[in-house]
């Protein structure tokens, strides 16, 4: 979904980005892209609280003319997981112009400051 919306491979370009993209988050987000990831972390945290298996639940979606459509089939968790991923994909697309290559592979030890609440 992220690749289709941004043209970037998520694992290579966003997994190791800033202070909040990838697993977990630490400190204040560095830019708009990092804020997208923080928001995504919050979305996943809410789903985990509701008992969803965010790493193993699967969902179906389609993209037509740049519009992401999550399937209405599947469990509530699967539909909500798709909604979280749709939101981050659109956010990352919206902030492509401010994507900063210097924040790729950013050292998490340099992430300081207040972690924003969800």
UniProtKB/TrEMBL annotation:
Residue stretches in coiled coil: none
Catalytic residues as annotated in Swiss-Prot or TrEMBL: 40, 85
Disulfide bonds: 21-37, 36-91, 42-118, 43-84, 52-77, 70-82
PANTHER family: GROUP IID SECRETORY PHOSPHOLIPASE A2, PHOSPHOLIPASE A2 FAMILY MEMBER
Family per record: Belongs to the phospholipase A2 family.
Protein's name according to its UniProt entry: Phospholipase A2
CC cofactor note: Binds 1 Ca(2+) ion per subunit.
Cofactor list: Ca(2+)
Catalytic activity: 1-hexadecanoyl-2-(9Z,12Z-octadecadienoyl)-sn-glycero-3-phosphoethanolamine + H2O = 1-hexadecanoyl-sn-glycero-3-phosphoethanolamine + (9Z,12Z)-octadecadienoate + H(+); a 1,2-diacyl-sn-glycero-3-phosphocholine + H2O = a 1-acyl-sn-glycero-3-phosphocholine + a fatty acid + H(+); 1-hexadecanoyl-2-(9Z-octadecenoyl)-sn-glycero-3-phosphocholine + H2O = 1-hexadecanoyl-sn-glycero-3-phosphocholine + (9Z)-octadecenoate + H(+)
Binding positions for Ca(2+) per the UniProt entry: 22, 24, 41
GO biological process: arachidonate secretion; lipid catabolic process; negative regulation of T cell proliferation; phospholipid metabolic process
Superkingdom of this protein's organism: Eukaryota
One MF annotation (Gene Ontology) recorded for this entry: calcium-dependent phospholipase A2 activity
UniProt keyword annotations, A-Z: Calcium, Disulfide bond, Hydrolase, Lipid metabolism, Metal-binding, Secreted
Annotated SMART domains: PA2c
EC number: 3.1.1.4
Cellular component terms per the entry's GO annotation: extracellular region
Cell location: Secreted
Domain Phospholipase A2-like central: 1-112
Main location: secreted
């Amino acid at each position: 979904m992220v690749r289709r919306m941004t043209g970037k491979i998520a694992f290579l370009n966003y997994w190791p980005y800033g202070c909040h993209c990838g697993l977990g988050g630490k400190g204040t987000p560095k830019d708009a892209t990092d804020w997208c990831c923080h928001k995504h972390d919050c979305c996943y945290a809410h789903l985990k609280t509701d008992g969803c298996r965010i790493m193993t639940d699967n969902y179906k979606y389609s993209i037509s003319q740049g519009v992401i459509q999550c399937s209405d089939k599947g469990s509530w968790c699967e539909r909500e997981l798709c909604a979280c991923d749709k939101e981050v994909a659109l956010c990352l697309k919206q902030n492509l112009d401010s994507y900063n290559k210097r924040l790729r592979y950013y050292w998490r030890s340099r992430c300081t400051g207040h972690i924003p609440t969800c």
